[in-house]
From TrEMBL:
Listed Polar residues bias regions: 585-596
Protein name: Solute carrier family 26 member 6, like 2
Record PROSITE patterns: STAS
Subcellular location: Membrane
NCBIfam families linked to this entry: sulP
Record domain STAS: where: 664-685
Any one GO cellular component localisation term in the record: membrane
Keyword Electron transport listed: no
Bilayer disposition of the protein: Multi-pass membrane protein
Domain of life where this protein originates: Eukaryota
Coiled coil: 515-550
Length: 685
């Protein structure tokens, strides 16, 4: 594996730098037009979304534009997905915002005034600068962790985040985004809350401030929201006929600058002021903040990767190519580490932009390069237009782009009909994330999801399958009564050390066969037969000493001995329980014609094999006898399929039939692996 060779080096380079494998073979005739058109569409979407999502991260809009530029170029080189759009995303933005607000609250930057009487003044510039340092440090730590996880092939961890968990979590995050942006729509200033139940406190505070709603801000927000929803629906309906989607978000922002600037000058609208976007020299993140943000980075690593890889695999499955999950981790990590030097925050794939990139004809990540060029031109040439942006317009843009997440509430009725356990995971994830905040909510969701797996393994559904006459179906006997006497036992979960003992108990309960009781009774009968044989042998020895054995007399004696032995065996046979009669399968270890029988010194043994028994009951017999596969009519008659009230006469005593089982089949189709405890349990059965 570690041997150095030129072909091996080439494979390693192509694996870690995927762009070298497909860019030299890029077909301009087939792919260029689609990539350029989709790149233009996605680039236009990057502008309003980047600025709006930066507001969720508690940063100024310019840093959203930076995040839409530099990491996209890195993913173009190292990514393996051809259709996803890397950049800002609402879920990750709100998670970054929770960290920046936690370590950079307004209370740390109060200059002058009195906070108790509402005259305190917050140094906005110092606060925003410190929050940028926190976001850069957080992005660097997230990137390093993603690279390390990718190198140790830790991409499989996302498999422990089930689809109901991810969808419930993103839906809860969408609700948090909605609550955080409502204050801009109604034009009020709410108090910032952090920690568990912060969303509840925010909602209560917002409701108490509704009488102070800014009517002008509310009307403009409603009109903008209506226009955005209408045009986006038209884009969806006519996506096959339009050469590119209508950039309605950019049009709404532009319309504000042309016609509503006077309203804003009169301070009817709250605006977000920031320096004009311009390219800055790279700067090393503050290493002193790494330890501070390290605990919060883990949740962001998992969520950002889960969103990206799920979108990537969906697109890859649709277009027939493969995505390397570990390389995706490395690509995201390098994008974040590189972006941290240019004041970007954590990136992941955006579902809305990825769908536009794919539907507009994008074939490769060249579309991402085109979108980056659009963002770069915007920053260099028309960046001054975005120096002052209305928060209400940005909030409506965020609302409209969350439509897909709010549609996930439709999962509730679907999961109710299909799988209530998945519905429980979805619901617990949603409630925990809303009440306990993003990081604790994710931890609770993962733990609960794992517990459901453990409980489903520990508490499986056991059933006895029976054959439905006239069909080839084997169904649960609880649903069908008229089944044959072949018992098929099935567990709904795999058998392992945690539930092997319960499996054995359920087998005995469901089949009605008490293994311990039957083996004990069988052992008693065998001992009784053995004592009778020894008694007959002693009588024979005494008789042999007394008689002068002549050839004819000896033959007569042997015949009479044989008759007495068969008479004794016939009497004992009636005392055996159903299906354990030794008559048909009696093996005498004294028989010289049985080469598979071993003798231990001078002791003689008789092994009784039941019709459903595989192997010996006791030691001393190594023969492989399996009469369960022999459809002997005499054996079948030993267990007649009478009703439960049928009885037979045994030695003058009327006993009720124990069970109606002829053979037992263990259905192990759900068992994915077998450990030593399972092997011992099956051996005991």
């Amino acid at each position: 594996h570690f041997r150095c060779s030129v072909p091996g080096l080439k494979r390693a380079v192509l694996k870690w730098v995927p762009v070298l494998s497909w860019l030299p073979q890029y077909s301009i005739r087939e792919n260029a037009v689609g990539d350029i058109v989709s790149g233009l569409s996605v680039g236009i979407m990057h502008l309003p979304q980047g600025m709006a999502y930066a507001l969720l991260a508690s940063l100024t809009p310019v840093f959203g534009l930076y995040t839409s530029l530099f990491p996209v170029m890195i993913y173009f080189i190292f990514g393996t997905s051809r259709h996803i759009s890397i950049g800002t995303f609402a879920v990750v933005s709100i998670m970054v915002g929770s960290v920046t607000e936690k370590f950079g609250p307004d209370s740390n930057f109060v200059v002058g005034g009195n906070g108790t009487n509402g005259t305190a003044v917050v140094d906005i510039d110092a606060r925003d600068a410190y929050r940028v340092q926190i976001s850069c440090a957080l992005t660097a730590v997230v990137g390093v962790l993603q690279i390390l996880f990718g190198l140790v092939r830790f991409g499989f961890v996302v498999t422990y985040l089930s689809e109901p968990l991810v969808r419930g979590y993103t839906t809860a995050v969408a609700v948090q985004v909605l609550l955080s942006q409502l204050k801009y729509v109604v034009g009020v200033h709410t108090t910032r809350f952090t920690g568990p139940l912060s969303q509840v406190y925010t909602l209560i505070d917002l409701c108490s401030l509704l009488p102070k709603t800014n009517i002008a801000t509310l009307v403009i927000s409603i009109v903008a929201l209506f226009v955005l929803i209408l045009v986006k629906e038209l884009n969806t309906y006519y996506r096959k006929k339009l050469p590119m989607s209508i950039p309605i978000e950019l049009i709404v922002v532009r319309f504000y600058f042309l016609h509503l600037s006077r309203v804003n000058a009169n301070k009817f609208l709250s605006s977000l002021r920031s320096p004009p976007p311009r390219l800055k020299a790279p700067r090393v993140p503050d290493g002193n903040l790494f330890i501070l943000v390290f605990p919060d980075a883990f949740a962001i690593v998992i969520v950002a990767y889960a969103i990206s890889i799920s979108i990537s695999k969906t697109m890859a499955l649709k277009h027939g190519y493969k995505v390397d999950s570990n390389q995706e981790l490395v690509a995201l990590g390098l994008s974040n580490v590189f972006g941290a030097f240019f004041q970007c925050y954590v990136v992941t794939a955006s579902l809305s932009r990825s769908l536009v990139q794919e539907s507009a004809g994008g074939k490769t990540q060249v579309a991402g390069v085109v979108s980056s060029i659009i963002v770069l031109i915007t920053i260099l040439k028309i960046g001054s237009l975005f120096a002052e942006l209305p928060k209400a317009i940005l909030a409506t843009i965020v609302f409209v782009n969350l439509k897909g997440m709010f549609k996930q509430f439709n999962d509730i009725p679907l999961l109710w009909k299909s799988n209530k356990m998945d519905l429980m995971i979805w619901s617990v994830t949603w409630v925990a994330t809303i009440l306990l905040n993003l990081d604790i909510g994710l931890a609770v969701a993962v733990v609960f999801s794992m517990l459901t797996v453990i409980f489903r393994i520990q508490l499986p559904r056991y059933s006895i399958l029976g054959h439905v006459p006239g069909t080839e179906l084997y169904v649960d006997m609880d649903a069908y009564e008229e089944v044959r006497r072949v018992t098929i036992f099935r567990s709904s979960a795999t058998i392992c050390y945690t539930n092997a003992e319960m499996y054995l108990e359920a087998l005995q309960e469901k089949s009605g066969i008490n293994i311990i009781e039957q083996l004990t009774e069988k052992k008693k009968l065998e001992n009784k037969l053995k004592r009778q044989q020894e008694k007959e042998k002693k009588k024979a020895k005494k008789a042999a000493k007394k008689l002068q054995v002549q050839p004819c007399m000896q033959r007569t004696f042997v015949e009479s001995k044989h008759n007495r032995y068969e008479s004794m065996s016939h009497e004992l046979m009636n005392e055996f329980p159903p299906c354990l009669s030794p008559t048909e399968n009696q093996v005498d270890v004294n028989s010289e014609q049985n080469p598979s029988v071993k003798k231990k010194g001078k002791k003689h043994q008789t092994v009784l094999v039941s019709p459903t028994e595989v192997g010996p009951v006791y030691g001393g017999f190594d023969g492989q006898v399996n009469s369960a596969y022999q459809m002997d009519p005499e054996v079948s008659d030993a267990c007649p399929a009478d009703d439960d009230n049928s009885a037979r006469e045994n030695g003058g005593v009327k006993t009720e039939e124990r069970h109606r089982t002829h053979s037992v089949i263990l259905d192990l189709s759900t068992t994915s692996f077998v450990d030593t405890v399972t092997a011992k349990t099956l051996n005991n059965v």
